[in-house]
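Q: Could you fold this chain for me?
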Amino acid sequence: MKNYEEQLKVLNNLFLSTQEAIDSLGVSKQCFHSLVARGKIQKIRKGSAVLYYADEIKERKQQQPWLRQKYRPFQDG
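A: Sure. Below is the predicted structure, expressed as structure tokens.
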């Protein structure tokens, strides 16, 4: 059982579900799926499961202020 718990911990550190990724980025579902469709965020499929790389989501979140300033300079913060 311990091995299973360790594997689950590793999985949770490496990957996010769709809802976890949306919540982490603080964007709408429509915006998130647009990012995926345009190849800005990579998805991983295993059967019916769809996961996203946690590191990629964290990196995107760090870039958001810069991207928002670049593409929406008329909007405050």
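A (continued): The domain at 2-71 is CATH 1.10.1660 (Multidrug-efflux Transporter Regulator; Chain: A; Domain 2).
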